[in-house]
Fold:
Amino acid sequence: MMRYDPALAIPVLERTPGVLRALLDGLPPAWTDAREGPERWSPYEVVGHLVHGERTDWIPRAEMILRVGEAESFPPFDRVAMLRDSAGRSLGELLDLFARLRGENVSRLRAMALTPADLGRRGRHPELGAVTLGQHLATWVAHDLSHIRQIVRTMGREYAEAVGPWTAYLPMLQLDEGGG
Structure:
């Protein structure tokens, strides 16, 4: 298992916009609006969610930890704000916005020049309680990877019936493979 290290994390954070663009840009809505179920997000909505996180979560909360520590709780994160904020935007616009915001946030992260002592500093999450800056930043990376997995799984499951008996060899098409 890996501990959070900015030198290892930043390359993943930098690649996420390109991965999403390569995977989604220019695809028809049959792919980008697909859902695994009524309470699940489409790939389009996931990108909107990632945009919202760039604006309100990762770097703002990291800066809050460095500024006030545990003295104040993070503002709650609206996990469905993208349903409102992305309305009327094309997927291409959201991908462009995500890439721009992520680039700015990675620059801000680099400028923090975090030390091991900084990574141990604590903030207060409104639901989870005390968290370290290292945990928060590691979650940023894992969050990206989790949503990439979610998008790929959602798209793959569009062919769950079409592949016929090959479903047995494709765990991501089996509904018990996992949520997200």
Notes: The helical segments are 6-24, 29-32, 43-56, 58-68, 82-85, 91-112, 116-119, 133-156. The beta strands are 122-125, 129-132. The mean pLDDT is 94.
